[in-house]
Amino acid sequence: MSAHPHRAEPFEEVSEAHYAQTYLSGDFVHNLMADSVHLLTGRCPRCGFTFTTEATLTVVRSAVTTAPLATASTPPRTELSITVFCPCPGEHSGRPDDIPDGCGAYWAVLMEERLP
Ligand SMILES: [Zn+2]
Ligand SMILES: [Zn+2]
């Protein structure tokens, strides 16, 4: 179903600098569902497996916001980092018994949520 062939790399817990950027380019899709549930769909930068990660981000708003005029133009926002692990069920030799799936690749996605 995928136009991208799977790369059966040996299992290795690894994160390289380009992983997040590669993941976020190309086929990446971000859907915001109800209740701050984010669905991140993309392709593992290492083995090419396409998967969807569900992340629940609860934004805590400031209890009281009485911003002075000087900073009123700066919207409040939060930044949250999500670590995404490849959940590929495919063949990756040397995968430890206590790790059910994945090629071992992981990377961080920075979520930024602007508050109204
Ligand atoms: Zn894989
Ligand atoms: Zn992978």
Overview of this structure, please?
16% of the residues are buried. The N and C termini lie far apart (39 Å). The strands form two sheets. The protein has a three-stranded antiparallel β-sheet. With 116 residues, it is mainly beta. A hairpin with a 6-residue loop joins strand 2 (37-43) and strand 3. The protein has a domain at 19-57 and 73-114. Mean pLDDT is 82; it is low at 64-70. The chain contains one helix and five strands; from the N terminus they run H-E-E-E-E-E. 5% of the residues lie in helices and 31% in strands. The structure holds zinc ion (ZN) (2 copies). One zinc ion (ZN) binds next to loops.
Q: What's the structural blueprint in terms of helices and strands?
A:
Elements: H1 19-24, E1 29-32, E2 37-43, E3 50-56, E4 77-85, E5 106-114
Antiparallel strand pairs: 1-2, 2-3, 4-5
Bound molecules: zinc ion (2 copies).
One zinc ion binds next to loops.
Largest sheet properties: 3 strands, antiparallel
Distance between the termini: 39 Å
As a percent range, the share of helical residues equals under 10%
Beta-sheet strand percentage?
Answer: 25-35%
Record the strand order, biggest sheet: 1-2-3
- Unreliably modeled segments: 64-70
- Bound ligands, each once: zinc ion
Quaternary state reads single chain
Query: Helix tally?
Result: 1
Number of strands: 5
The rough form would be described as: elongated
Structural class of the secondary elements?
A: mainly beta
Mean pLDDT across every amino acid position: 82
Note the run of SSEs as H and E: HEEEEE
Estimated radius of gyration: 18 Å
